[in-house]
Every structure is written in structure tokens, then in C-alpha cells.
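Shipment paperwork, digital attachment
Item: protein structure file
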Amino acid sequence: MISFVVKRALAAVAALAFATFSVATCAFAQDYPKRPITMIVPFAAGGTSDVIARAVAEQMGIALGQTIVIENVAGAGGSTALARASRAEPDGYTIAIGNAGTNAATYTIYPKLPFTPDSFVPIAMVAKTFGIIALRKDFPAKDLKEFIAYAKANPGKINLGHAGVGSSNYLICKSFVTAAGVDATLVGYRGAAPALTDAVGSQIDGVCDAAASVSQAINEKLVKGLVVGSTVRLATLPDLPTSAEAGLPEFEAQGWNGLFAPKGTPPAVIAKLNAAARTAVETEAVKKRFADLSTVAPDGDEHAPEVLQKLVTRDVEKYRKMLADHANK
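Attachment content:
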């Protein structure tokens, strides 16, 4: 009898605690957000993730009635920023933008990270991107066929810049050199912007980048586009051939950008952030910005947190296989 009474009492206490917690969480979510939100960008200002983040954050802030402040935290292919985001208070006031590099490939490249995929809660996919290979304007090759011939005649002598090992741009590089069967030196930077700057200045031979951050430089003839890893040509770069058109259909570079929150962030807060993200990418301001960058916003069910979670799960396995050489080091 005593045991039964004790169990009933404990159950009542637990039920009361849960009810109190639920009420408090609900009240918190209703008032959220009451102050500015920080969005961590894992790379230097000016790169693809940064450009997308700023466009989306501005409109999300309007939808939420609070400013979203961008904080660029470069280093280790984005893992420095994700480590910071994983340690943040799970209250919805610190979120991060990530991609297949920072939130999937990084677990193979840096196996001793202080965070795992379970350290984050998906909010929403906000953009679909397309990878491009661009060369310094004076590179001695006018098309992909000539580039591959030159690279094979000069093994290890071509330098291609990217936003750091583990970034989506690094994955574009890896996919490209693997498909092309060439030996090139992949040079990591603390973001896509400084890599592009060096390509413009002919300090390196080229860059692996997303259309979002390299299209303007190609159109202004500061660098010359070689190929886009897409199944269709991009409206902003109509003269740039797809990988299939250029004779290398094996090169595929279609990526994504998504928003994440620290594990433990209340579902009601995630729902508010998801709704704001949906609203943001549907605004004319973001649509125009994305169109200028050859970036596509998700539509329909693609906004759902579950879709982003499936992308992460898929790409963790995909890059575990592709980057097996890193895992064995």
C-alpha cells in the first residue's frame, strides 16, 4: 500500500512538473521573440552562405518583428561556427545557417568534433544552390575539354580555391576533380569571398564556388566561368555550359542552405522560425535577390523541418563514402 501511495504521489508530482513546464514553454513561445536574434554564418562575409543569410534574415526579421543580426564565424570549414551554435542557449535567440558541407560532410572530415548531427534541430531549408568552376581570366584554356587536357599535362600544378575543408565549396571541388580525373591542388580559405578575390587577382588558378557568389564576377569578366554542375543552364549565366553539355555529366553540384537551432529549442519556437523563413523566401525582395544570384528558393513541402533533416541524413552518408580518405587519416 505504501509503495502504491508513493508511486501515485511521484506520478502526480511528475504530471504537475510537466504541466508547469508546458505552460511555461507555451508562454515563452507566445512572447518570442522579445529581443534581436543572432544568425551565425560559418564563413566570412561576402560568400554564398553569407549572401543568402543576409537576404533571408532581413525578411525573417520583418516577419518576426525583431532584428536578426548576422555574425560571421569563419574557420575549419564552418565547424568553428557550428560548435559555437551547438553550445548556445536553446531559446531561439541563436540560430545558424548551414549546408551540406558544414552539417554533413564535416563529420567525416573532422571526426572529433564537439557536436553531432543530433546537436541541432532543423528549422527550414531556405535555398537551393548550384556549383560552378571559374578560372582566372588569363588561364590558358577556353573550355572544359582544354582545361582537363592542360590539367593532365600539368598534374598538381593547378590551384583551385574553396571556402575551407568541409565547406560546400570544398565538396564542389572534390566532386569536380574526381569526375574530371585530374590532379589539382585544392586551396582552403576562410570563406568563398577571399578565394574569389585571389582568383580575380590571378593569385590562384580558379575557384569552386556557388552561383550566388561568383555569377557577378563572371558576368563582369573578372573571372571566366568554366562549367556549372547543373542539369539546366542558369538564367544569370546563359553562356555557361552545364556539365553534360561540356562533356562531364558525372560532375553534379546542386546544394542547399538551411537554418538550424541548438538541440532543445522548443518546438513552438521552431515553428515560429519556420513560418518566418517560409514568409521570407516568398517575398519579392528575396525572390529578386535569389534570381540575381542563380539561387532557387524551396517551395511547397520543401520548407518543412523534416525535409531538411532528411537532407542532412542523406548527405552525412553520401560524403562519408566520398570522403573516406579523410576518415582514414
